[in-house]
Amino acid sequence: MSVNLVISFNVKEEKLQSFKDIMNDVKINLPKLDGCQAIRILNHLENPLAFTLVETWDSREMHGIHVDKMISSGQWGVIVEHLSSAPVSGYFSEV
């Protein structure tokens, strides 16, 4: 059974365009990874600094492998540099 990861980001104003560029890359490349079924990237209409990603994975374990690779490669650190607060995330199943 697949699992959905929902993660919300609040971006620093001066990093907004750079974060959007990263998200465009994520939108193209994340679905190519083993275990990733789909991704939706949402930008809040009233707060342009707020983003929510909805990722669908084969399993939590597959997502965990992806996260471990992002951390070890330094990619996660680059994303964190763009944020004004810690991201909030959780795993969800469809009902």
Question: What percentage of residues falls in helices of 4 or more residues?
Answer: 25-40%
The assigned structural class equals alpha+beta
**Major pleated sheet:** 4 strands, antiparallel
**Terminal residue distance:** 12 Å
Mean pLDDT across every amino acid position: 97
Q: How many H/I helical runs?
A: 3
Q: What's the number of extended β-strand segments? A: 4
Q: What is the CA-based Rg, rounded?
A: 13 Å
SSE pattern, N- to C-terminal: EHEEHHE
Strand content: 25-35%
Strand order of the largest sheet: 2-3-1-4
Return residue spans where pLDDT drops below 50 for at least 5 consecutive residues: none
| Shape category | globular
GO molecular function, one term: monooxygenase activity
InterPro entries: ABM_dom, Dimeric_a/b-barrel
Pfam families: ABM
Keywords: Monooxygenase, Oxidoreductase
Explain what the structure shows.
InterPro entries: ABM_dom, Dimeric_a/b-barrel. One of its GO terms (molecular function) is monooxygenase activity. It holds the Pfam family ABM. The protein is of the alpha+beta class and 95 residues long. A hairpin with a 6-residue loop joins β2 and β3.
